[in-house]
Design a protein that fits this description.
It contains 7 helices and 14 strands. The strands form 3 sheets. Strands 4-9-6-7-8-5 form a 6-stranded antiparallel β-sheet, with no helix packed on it. The chain has a 5-stranded mixed β-sheet with strand order 11-10-12-13-14, sandwiched between helices. Strands 1-3-2 form a 3-stranded antiparallel β-sheet, with no helix packed on it. It is about 20% helix and about 30% strand. Keywords: Signal.
Length: about 325
């Protein structure tokens, strides 16, 4: 009974947190426009605009236009704007004078949008350069007016100073067996949104001090508390989470990045590809560390009854490792 209650509690908490971490997006439109020159100051219908806000007012409020669709209709024009607002567009550095936890920070999680203009063998070349191999995003199909649908994930597989190639792969982040799934494929005219949910993250640290330090230094990022992940590990009797455990949990919670603190550095990884997007030095006291990471959830223990032989080998192999050694293996840093 206690186990069932814990699962219900975990589900409720994670649903609440993940819903609060979602980026804002909306589609506003205006039909039968006679004078296109006035459209940016005309109140738009649908979505957040709701007949009250113009495009210029939306921009002033922090909304960015990722796509615009204009269709002629009997000497008039129908306008549809796909907009996104990310209140935490950049991971910001705390202005604290505490040099003990100093971080040099330039990493940006601002979403970038572009239209898909070509498709070849499930790939597309886009006119955005200098991207990180393994950087990801989503592809959105926009229907008439305020309807849109995520049809695919995308990851950067090559990039130069002028352009990049992205490859599409299945979007199953928000699995729900009770709901129908789409069979729609990526099409020309769909919108690619890079850095999707990069401002929503899981934070893994060795101590409470480093946990608080990273949250203070990256204060505009939304961090789901490691206690939520630890609660799941406790329910599943997994004291030593694997790379796959981290990815599965982060994707379930719609988190775009995972922050790991080890070897006096902050490593920022893409959730879906596990690519290291950036690293920053972080000075802290290494005398006290907690395995598998800092959490207020106590006694995450294994269950012999649930162990397979391979699980037992994994457990015995990892339990002798230090915190840094353990996460060097998880991140693939160990030579």
């Amino acid at each position: 009974m206690t186990k069932i209650f814990n699962k219900i509690l975990l589900l409720s908490a994670t649903c609440l947190l993940s819903s609060n971490l979602l980026a804002q997006e909306t589609v506003c439109f205006k039909n039968n426009v006679e004078k296109p020159s006035l459209i940016e100051n005309t109140a738009l219908d649908g979505g957040v605009c709701n007949g009250n806000l113009s495009l210029n007012q939306m921009k002033k409020d922090g909304w960015n236009v990722l796509d615009i669709k204009i269709t002629p209709s009997e000497n008039k024009f129908n306008y549809s704007y796909y907009l996104i607002k990310n209140d935490n567009q950049n991971i910001a550095l705390n202005n604290s004078n505490d040099s003990k936890y100093n971080v040099e920070n330039n990493f940006s999680v601002k979403p970038m949008g572009t239209k898909i203009e070509n498709i070849d063998d499930n790939k597309s070349t886009i006119n955005i350069g200098n991207l990180i191999i393994g950087q990801t995003g989503i592809v959105v199909h926009i229907y008439d007016n305020d309807k849109r649908l995520i049809v695919s994930n995308a990851k950067v597989i090559s990039s130069n100073s002028n352009s990049s190639i992205v490859e599409f792969f299945k979007f199953d982040d928000l699995k729900q067996d009770a709901l129908p799934t789409t069979k729609r494929m990526v099409e020309k005219g769909d919108v690619l949104v890079l850095n999707y949910m990069y401002n929503s993250s899981l934070l893994i640290t060795p101590t409470q001090d480093t946990f608080q330090a990273v949250r203070n230094n990256f204060k505009l990022n939304n961090f789901i508390h490691s206690d939520i992940f630890a609660a799941k590990l406790k329910i599943n009797n997994k004291p030593f989470p694997t790379k796959e455990d981290f990815q599965e949990f982060a994707i379930e919670q719609n988190l775009g990045t995972i922050f790991y603190v080890l070897n006096k550095k902050v490593y920022i990884l893409d959730t879906k590809t596990f690519t290291i997007l950036d690293t920053y030095p972080l000075s802290y006291d290494e005398n006290e560390t907690k395995m598998p990471f800092y959490t207020r959830v106590e006694e995450i223990e294994s269950s012999i009854l649930d162990f397979s032989f391979s699980d037992l080998l994994f457990f015995n192999d990892k339990k002798e490792l230090s915190y840094d050694e353990y996460y060097e293996e998880i991140l693939g840093l160990k030579k």
